[in-house]
Amino acid sequence: MRSDVKPPVKGLIESTSWDGPLDLYATLECGQTYCWRRSDGGMFAGEPPTEAVWYETVVGTDDPRVSAPVALRIRQLPGGIEYEASEDPVTLIRSLLGLDDPLPEIYASMPSHPLITAAIERYPGLRIVRDPPVACLLSFICSAQMRVARTHQLQTRIAKTYGTTMGWGDVAIAAFPTAERLAAVGEQQLRELGLGYRAPYVGDSASIVAAGDLHPVDVQGLPYEQARSDLTAFTGVGEKVADCVLLFALGYLQAVPLDTWMRQAISRYFPGLGDGSYAELSAGLRSAFGEDIAGYTQTHVFHLLRQTPAEKLPPAA
DNA sequence: AGCCAGGCAAGTG
DNA sequence: CACTTGCATGGC
What we know:
By secondary structure, the protein is an alpha+beta fold. Helix content is 42%, strand content 11%. The structure holds a DNA duplex.
């Protein structure tokens, strides 16, 4: 069934090899990435796994970090991150999970505010991922007006339907399909998967990548606001999805995706930022969250807001 | 039954 | 430029 029957590379990335805490569960299930699947199938059910469970993904050739697809799975143990992979994945895993981010310094540089303090005390070790850029782009196009769990369910369906499967033994991991493959899938078939009105957006953006007209990595290195603006050239990508790609794939830690949750937080906790344009609110929130690392603050706060009943949140200032 | 979910594109004024 | 409307689907 699978052609690659080679045994996997196995090992441990020791927790002493990075700075600060790591919470793999919060990192992969806070809603910032749709690229991983849990081997027990219980992702985004709201419950942490009872035992150390495997998280699985494939990093494909749309990603400049690899020259050939790499299948891997990881789990968190007391001593670090255990892995199994189709080839040595250590550098890749460190990148995917933000293990080289100086988290203690990042926490120290966050402004003192009741909402921010509550978020980092609740989720110490939540790190910003660096997802494969094309998969990140297309999955966040799908996320428009959909709940996190259903968005993830759709990505799984896309991978299992159109992606290639890699693995070893009884491990089988479905890769997110390449842009070329998705570009060849018709809008109608994507609708049948349940994408709804997002189906043509995904198809068109995949075609843009496949044709070589624009790749999300092309904007890497540009000034933040320029990069955000350039990404909106993809179909189905506005400023919010562009911010997600910049933060969760391209390492722009100053990006703050302004979704409905963050707009609520602004009106309740930072009313001074006003009801202006996206650009204005974004600049204001970056200032309130810590200019260079505002995305780290945003993702902690986002998770807190989603996981906490309103009456248990800090009182509005 | 109605409202909402990590919005966006296209059409007006 | 600011503002409005239509758009799929599922869960509560």
